[in-house]
Amino acid sequence: MSSIVVVGAGVTGMVTAIECARVGHRVTLLDRGPIPNPASTSADQHRALRVLRPGDPVMTAQFASARTCWLELESLLGERFFRQVGIVTAWPRNEVGALTVVEPEKLPHIRFPHDTVGVLDADAGVLLADRFLDAAARWLSRRPNVTVRPECSVKFVAEHWVSLVDGTALGADVVVVAAGPWSRELVDIPVKLYRQTMVYLRPPADLAAWWEHAPGAGGLGADCRAWLLPPGDGTLLKISSDLVCRDVDSTAGGEPGPWVDRLLAEPILSEMDRYQVVAVRECHYATDPGTGGPLLHHFGPGLWVRPACGGSGFAAAPLVARTIVEAMEATA
Fold first, then answer.
1. What pLDDT does 311 receive?
2. Is residue 231 located within the same domain as residue 211?
3. Residue 235 and residue 230: Cα distance in Å, rounded?
4. 81 and 11 in one domain?
5. Are residues 256 and 323 in the same domain?
6. Confidence of residue 300 (pLDDT cuts 50, 70, 90)
7. Positive or negative, the Cα torsion across 90, 95, 98, 101?
8. Within 13 Å, how many C-alpha atoms sit on residue 106's CB side?
9. Are 175 and 281 members of one domain?
10. 191, 321 Cβ separation under 8 angstroms
11. Residue in 172, 176, 70, 179 with CA at minimum distance from that of residue 125
């Protein structure tokens, strides 16, 4: 079997380490902070797992496969972290065709744009992100073929080896860099970095029971670019919008205040002023500057780089891990 060093213990790093360990590879998992790291871009209360992509059967099949992988991970780790609450996306009423429709009046506390209905993705839901990361860290720490090294800063990487800040080097058959937006500090790759503001809300007491059984929702807001994830299992109601997404040069700095105001002014919730703002978070994610899609760079048999993170990047982590493991098996 092969030896693998995974740099970055976010969702992609964790899932890749798990999949490699399951098939018998020797794994070393590194992170510059604790594992799991609350400062990582993967850390969050919950993330969306959408399956249905209308008009795109290939991507629908891919995320159906990702959903299956997440259910298998639940079984392996002995922890429930997928809430199948469904996701409803606002869609022009005259374009729904044969899609399953939810009329807006069925979801009275969510504001749908004019002349739209909800398209139901019944197999979708939310991934309890922090719960998964905690369970994954525990599972990996118990595996005899896995070495977990928190507080371990990496200086640079190359095919088959990793140089640490303390001057030591780690050799491996394969190096996987999954350090999110910080990956570009280690490998010369084209990356466009974005910052997005997310607001966490507590519903009014009289609506708490309704929200516990509500679906996620997308395509909301004045320009149909906002979304929400419902509360439940200890999470808050989370809202955001591409309206408050902006490209930045680094993860440092940033003042969320004006962006929070813009987000709260969006028509996302009925009676928005009744909801209590509990927390605000600035998250970052990386995309390919040419395609805008998630990144997975293969620099050769000994080096893979996955700087994409956030949004669908969390849900797609098992697909990335499977790609890497399958390529390793084919090479071997």
1. 64
2. yes
3. 8
4. yes
5. no
6. confident
7. positive
8. 13
9. no
10. no
11. 70
